[in-house]
From TrEMBL:
Source organism: Desulfosporosinus fructosivorans
Protein's name according to its UniProt entry: CBS domain-containing protein
Listed PROSITE patterns: CBS
Chain ranges of the CBS domain: 11-83, 108-163
Keyword tags: CBS domain, Repeat
Residue stretches in coiled coil: none
UniProt KW Repeat keyword: yes
Keyword match Repeat: yes
SUPFAM superfamilies according to UniProt: CBS-domain pair
Biological classification of the source: Bacteria, Bacillati, Bacillota, Clostridia, Eubacteriales
Pfam families for the chain: CBS
Amino acid sequence: MPETKKVKELMVPISEYPVVYNTDTLKDAIRVLKTYHIDSKEHRSMLVFKREGTEEKLAGILTVRDILNTIKGKTMSYDNNELFTMSWSRFYGKTSLGNSVSTKVEEAIRPLVTEFVQTEQDVSDAIRIMMTKGINILPVFEGEKPVGIVRAIDILDYIGDLL
């Protein structure tokens, strides 16, 4: 049986992962994600930090689905079908889509909960947490400092390598 890896061997370092701040807008977040797609990096989420004095603390995770759900909630306050019958370019000129992407990230994020792993933990710990909690993204800490992220696709690649 192959030796189990440590989380730090599978994680995506923060330096290679999209990051925004809680005070940024969804428009800012979309631009950050687009930048990472141009660089051939396939991320569907980003880490959200908040500034507290001179420190930056991890505030939560923002996924593509969170962005879309927020836009939906802000634009579809009337007939649910109306958004899809309008041209996006025409609709953007209206206030609802423009206002929805002006929403602060802190209003759309998934706040951090107790699920995270440390860099020196075995990958099996990350797998157990992801499977039992039904999550696809797991922050990685070194002590109290966030240093990376483990995604479900990273776990799947690891399992595939074991086969």
